[in-house]
Design goal:
This protein is of the alpha+beta class. It is built from 17 helices and seven strands. The longest helix has 19 residues.
Length: 343
């Protein structure tokens, strides 16, 4: 399985905006959800910007806390329309059959999320769409798998003209208390406690014709997906710099060292990063902030140890930096996370 750097931009900004819009149902103001996150710093009109897996998970974690809705993943999957997936969504809608649509999704899924991998296969008479994580992190919530698999099932019913789908979802998390209360809202039942994350349905459904089948439109959308896939195949400069900074956060290399490893001068690197709307110091701060979130959530290290791991000789400097990022001290953030998990 391919592994994606936690600090590599991989998730289209549109999904983060969809999440912000969804949270307004629980009267969470966009500014409250976005404050201090990467989403607040990105161009609000950008359509091709991407968040790192850590940045998106931080946003999800905050959304779960602020809304107080543990079943938020279900709602996100049901709300997200196929058009939100860009040209891949249009290619899927205009495919000839359900099987064609799923095969397209498998081929171009990496254009939608570099943090997850989609596999499609048939076992005996059962068609299986499996979702695997491509990042080395164990999430404390099932949100990505619940939202994506519920969304796929909902989309399958929609494009075949049905109210529901003869399918079931398997999730590699213990069954949560909120499932029983929300099961009637879902397009198919969910089986928790499995060792995989899958959408499973009779293979015979793969031949189902789609309501909006259009060979010409599907081909045009597919060609655009091919271009997006080609554009993502080469590692952009910002991702390269992030990867180099992340090699050792406790002894993070300086601008000159990173520039040399990118085969350019420090001045050229600063200019090229500016063209991408970021600075070297911002990237370095973002790396430390994102790692701080992870280490504080894990709870294995003391705050003093985390400060040292991130290159702060004085823990007080780490506390000041963290408060500037979030408005909270590291201790307050950790205690809030513990309180949320105990609910």
């Amino acid at each position: 399985m391919p592994t994606v750097d936690l600090h590599q931009p991989a998730i289209p900004i549109n999904y983060a905006r969809q999440l912000v819009e969804l949270c307004s149902r629980w009267h969470v103001a966009p500014q409250e959800l976005m404050e201090g996150t990467a989403l607040a710093r990105l161009d609000p009109h950008s359509t091709d910007a991407r968040l790192t897996p850590l940045e998106f998970n931080i946003l999800v974690d905050r959304a779960l806390r602020l809304t107080g809705e543990p079943a938020l993943g279900y709602h996100f999957g049901l709300q997200t329309k196929l058009s939100a997936h860009g040209f891949l969504g249009y290619a899927v809608m205009t495919s000839a059959t359900l099987g064609d649509a799923i095969a397209l999704t498998e081929k171009f899924f990496s254009t939608r999320s570099g943090a997850l991998e989609l596999k499609f296969f048939v076992q005996d008479d059962v068609a299986v769409v499996q979702i695997d994580s491509t990042v080395d992190i164990k999430l404390p919530f099932a949100f990505p798998f619940e939202s994506l698999l519920v969304g796929l099932c909902h989309a399958g019913a929609y494009i075949t003209g049905k109210n529901s789908m003869d399918a079931e979802i398997w999730i590699d998390f213990p069954e949560p208390a909120y499932y029983a209360a929300c099961a009637h809202l879902l397009p198919c039942p969910i089986r928790y406690g499995k060792n995989v994350n899958q959408l499973r349905f009779p293979a015979a459904l793969l031949a189902e014709p789609l309501l909006m089948a259009d060979p010409t439109a599907s081909q045009l959308a597919r060609e655009q997906c091919e271009r997006e896939l080609a554009a993502l195949s080469s590692q952009p400069l910002v991702s390269r710099v992030r990867a180099l900074l992340g090699e050792d956060l406790g002894a993070m290399p300086d601008l000159e060292s990173v520039a040399a490893r990118c085969c350019m001068s420090a001045r050229s690197l600063k200019r090229k990063l500016a063209e991408h709307g970021v600075s070297f110091s911002e990237l370095a701060a973002d790396m430390r902030r994102d790692e701080a979130f992870v280490l504080l959530a894990e709870g294995r290290l003391s705050i003093e140890q985390i400060a040292g791991r991130l290159g702060y000789r004085d823990p007080a400097n780490f506390t000041r930096a963290f408060k500037a990022w979030t408005g909270e001290t590291p201790r307050q953030y950790r205690e809030q996370r513990r309180a949320t998990r105990s609910l």
